């Protein structure tokens, strides 16, 4: 109670000094009509501070325990930094604070037509600084407090500071600012040192800092930290009855550095122009100001009061969230997750030895002692999980995900006898452990993305070559300079097979897919339909003997569509689950597009190029996922490899070269119905194996 009282008194006095000096200055310069602007600034600042506090409370309440410890450590470090900066600023500026503020008021009021808003802004910023600082300080204190003592102390500190501010305004109280800020500054530095040591402890409890954990001394038998004197010393000096080396070192180093800097001689702050001893423009214009009509500030003040009340309501609601963790009932499981109830008495756990299966476990901690306690799961010096500030007679719940091993439980005081926690392996845990983290897919995503971009560039080159063939047909027997088949029909079949390598991702762009790889059967007039364009339309035209100049516009349009596809694929955000899922759908779709038979060598070559492209895309997906899938589910990884190998064997038996570099120039052959059916079946079987991958890797579809 004492520390929150002193901190809020300190911060409240600063705010009261600012408001009191401004109010006195307004009264003495004949501008008392602007006092509503001062109140508006005060209420707006208080409302903002309360909303900040509510936001911090909500954030902390929703954090998992380790993240909450990190958050509390961060709040502690911010509080230490702001306290230190404020102490040294006040040490430097306390002698001239009144003159500085009066000069600021004078400058604000010198702007005609904006005096009220300038005054509101100045008061708002001055009070908001103190209010937001107070929120950080109090959060750091409240996180280690329970009950109403801290809140009551803070309220009394604010109340006394308000009384001092009113006294300053009335002129009945005189304060030696220099001596006041000197002695309170020293005390606040000691408080900040304790907050710093507590922040270091939070880092340890979050598992971030596990060095220097040797206990320096243990005075719990003489002066426990939860005794009245221990509580006071804990607030004044950061006292802990069993501190570890890291906490003591942080406390001592901070005080050693800051106290030396604090007592180092410095020159007094220079007098500020515009102090009360010098006539100010505001004072000179007092009579004129008195005759000016009072601004209508009622709505502004009312609005600021509403903001304050909303902020107070939000802070009150948020402050109750962490205390709403009490659970009821004595269930042994919730949705299949085991629930273990542990009662803490005077330094013992009941039961004292607990065995649970690996995986997620819910612990219900019931405090049957007479003091607020904390319960922790320890792995040596590391804190795995914990629940703090369990009030007497209250129950709190903790959800932990544990791996097999032997651990300890703290049962009340940290130096009390510890209980044992044994975590055994389980089938559910094995299944859970088989699901790799998202970071395990970073390599697969990068490799697959590069593959897609590389194959897209190859498709663009093939389409460009096809357009050149139609614009400038090569003579019979001529060798193409670009390395692609000289025959335009053979090149069209190769390009369609290349598109199949992109199909897992390309088919999601329905507009482009319908223009690049549509079939005649998809249109009402089939080959004669004007909407029928793309690779298969060009191939059909070449087979029908259409003149090249008639097909050239189709090739030019195809170039534009492929260029747009390349841009979309380059901008796409690839997800881990998309690799296998898209490959499985592409394989299944391809199995339905195999014709009943291919009666000519050209048709057979087109089918085999199509199937080869489908296999190549799926094979790449399997390769990039194999390192992860091989660890998570070796059997499925092998099954997928076998199904794709069988598909590759099928197309090799039908004349597709084993050397991938020779596929572009493979000879065509007619395919009978049995051969086409075998190809479709091999594609479908591969799709079924690929469809099981995401479930095996724990990836959501």
TrEMBL record:
<feature type="transmembrane region" description="Helical">
    <location>
        <begin position="70"/>
        <end position="89"/>
    </location>
</feature>
<comment type="similarity">
    <text>Belongs to the oxidase-dependent Fe transporter (OFeT) (TC 9.A.10.1) family.</text>
</comment>
<dbReference type="InterPro" id="IPR034981">
    <property type="entry name" value="Imelysin-like_EfeO/Algp7"/>
</dbReference>
<dbReference type="InterPro" id="IPR008972">
    <property type="entry name" value="Cupredoxin"/>
</dbReference>
<protein>
    <submittedName>
        <fullName>Iron uptake transporter permease EfeU</fullName>
    </submittedName>
</protein>
<feature type="domain" description="EfeO-type cupredoxin-like">
    <location>
        <begin position="324"/>
        <end position="423"/>
    </location>
</feature>
<dbReference type="Pfam" id="PF03239">
    <property type="entry name" value="FTR1"/>
</dbReference>
<feature type="transmembrane region" description="Helical">
    <location>
        <begin position="297"/>
        <end position="316"/>
    </location>
</feature>
<feature type="transmembrane region" description="Helical">
    <location>
        <begin position="148"/>
        <end position="168"/>
    </location>
</feature>
<feature type="transmembrane region" description="Helical">
    <location>
        <begin position="38"/>
        <end position="58"/>
    </location>
</feature>
<keyword id="KW-1133">Transmembrane helix</keyword>
<dbReference type="InterPro" id="IPR038352">
    <property type="entry name" value="Imelysin_sf"/>
</dbReference>
<dbReference type="Pfam" id="PF13473">
    <property type="entry name" value="Cupredoxin_1"/>
</dbReference>
<keyword id="KW-0812">Transmembrane</keyword>
<feature type="transmembrane region" description="Helical">
    <location>
        <begin position="109"/>
        <end position="128"/>
    </location>
</feature>
<feature type="transmembrane region" description="Helical">
    <location>
        <begin position="6"/>
        <end position="26"/>
    </location>
</feature>
<dbReference type="InterPro" id="IPR028096">
    <property type="entry name" value="EfeO_Cupredoxin"/>
</dbReference>
<feature type="transmembrane region" description="Helical">
    <location>
        <begin position="248"/>
        <end position="266"/>
    </location>
</feature>
<dbReference type="InterPro" id="IPR004923">
    <property type="entry name" value="FTR1/Fip1/EfeU"/>
</dbReference>
<keyword id="KW-0472">Membrane</keyword>
<feature type="transmembrane region" description="Helical">
    <location>
        <begin position="180"/>
        <end position="200"/>
    </location>
</feature>
């Amino acid at each position: 109670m004492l520390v929150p009282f002193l901190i809020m008194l300190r911060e409240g006095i600063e705010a009261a000094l600012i408001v009191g000096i401004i109010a006195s200055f307004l009264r003495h310069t004949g501008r008392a009509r602007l006092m509503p602007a001062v109140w508006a600034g005060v209420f707006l600042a208080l409302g903002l501070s309360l909303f900040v506090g509510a936001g911090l409370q909500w954030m902390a309440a929703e954090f998992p325990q380790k993240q909450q410890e990190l958050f509390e450590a961060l709040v502690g470090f911010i509080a230490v930094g702001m306290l230190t900066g404020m102490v040294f600023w006040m040490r430097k500026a306390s002698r001239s604070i009144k003159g500085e503020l009066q000069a600021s008021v004078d400058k604000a009021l010198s702007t005609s037509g904006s005096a009220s808003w300038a005054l509101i802004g100045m008061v708002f910023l001055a009070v908001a600084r103190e209010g937001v600082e107070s929120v950080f300080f109090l959060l750091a204190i409240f996180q280690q407090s329970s009950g109403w003592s801290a809140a009551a102390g803070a309220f009394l500190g604010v109340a006394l500071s308000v009384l001092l501010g009113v006294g300053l305004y009335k002129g009945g109280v005189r304060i030696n600012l220099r001596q006041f800020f000197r002695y309170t500054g020293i005390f606040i530095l000691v408080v900040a040192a304790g907050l710093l040591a507590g922040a270091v402890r939070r880092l340890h409890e979050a598992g971030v800092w596990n060095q220097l954990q040797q206990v320096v001394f243990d005075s719990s038998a003489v002066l426990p930290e939860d005794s009245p004197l221990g509580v006071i010393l804990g607030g004044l000096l950061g006292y802990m009855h069993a501190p570890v080396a890291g906490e003591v070192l942080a406390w001592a180093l901070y005080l050693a550095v800051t106290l030396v800097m604090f007592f180092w001689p410095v020159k007094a702050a220079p007098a500020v122009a515009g102090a009360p001893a010098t006539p100010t423009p505001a004072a000179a214009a007092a009579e004129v100001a008195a005759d000016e009509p009072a601004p209508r500030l009622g709505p502004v003040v009312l609005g600021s009061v509403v903001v304050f009340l909303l902020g107070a309501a939000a802070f009150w609601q948020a402050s109750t969230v962490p205390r709403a963790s009490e659970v009821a009932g004595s269930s042994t499981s919730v949705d299949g997750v085991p629930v273990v109830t542990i009662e803490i008495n005077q330094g013992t756990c009941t039961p004292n030895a607990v065995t649970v299966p690996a995986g997620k476990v819910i612990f219900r901690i019931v405090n049957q002692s007479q003091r607020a306690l904390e319960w922790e799961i320890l792995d040596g010096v590391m804190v795995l999980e914990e629940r703090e500030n369990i009030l007497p007679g209250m129950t709190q719940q903790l959800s932990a995900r544990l791996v097999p091993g032997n651990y300890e439980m703290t049962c009340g005081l940290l130096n009390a006898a510890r209980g044992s926690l044994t975590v055994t392996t389980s089938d559910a845990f094995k299944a859970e452990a088989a699901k790799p983290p998202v970071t395990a897919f970073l390599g697969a995503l990068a490799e697959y993305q590069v593959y897609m971009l590389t194959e897209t560039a190859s498709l663009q080159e093939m389409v460009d070559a096809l357009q050149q063939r139609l614009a400038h047909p090569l003579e019979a027997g001529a060798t193409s300079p670009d390395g692609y088949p000289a025959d335009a029909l053979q090149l069209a079949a190769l390009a369609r097979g290349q598109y199949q390598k992109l199909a897992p991702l390309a088919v999601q762009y329905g507009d482009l897919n319908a223009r690049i790889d549509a079939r005649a059967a998809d249109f009402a007039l089939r080959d004669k339909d004007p909407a029928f364009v793309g690779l298969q339309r060009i191939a059909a035209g070449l087979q029908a003997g259409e003149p090249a100049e008639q097909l050239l516009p189709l090739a030019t349009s195809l170039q534009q569509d492929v260029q747009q596809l390349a841009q979309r694929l380059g901008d796409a955000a690839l997800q881990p689950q998309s690799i296998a899922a898209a490959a499985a759908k592409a394989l299944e779709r391809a199995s339905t597009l195999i014709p009943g038979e291919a009666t000519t060598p050209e048709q057979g070559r087109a089918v085999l190029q199509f199937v080869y492209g489908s296999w190549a895309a799926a094979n790449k997906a399997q390769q990039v996922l194999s390192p992860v899938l091989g660890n998570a589910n070796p059997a499925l990884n092998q099954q997928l490899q076998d199904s794709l190998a069988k598909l590759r064997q099928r197309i090799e038996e039908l004349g597709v070269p084993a050397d991938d570099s020779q596929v572009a120039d493979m000879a065509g052959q007619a395919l009978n119905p049995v051969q086409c059916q075998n190809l479709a079946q091999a594609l479908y079987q591969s799709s079924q194996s690929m469809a099981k991958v995401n479930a095996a890797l724990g990836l959501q579809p």
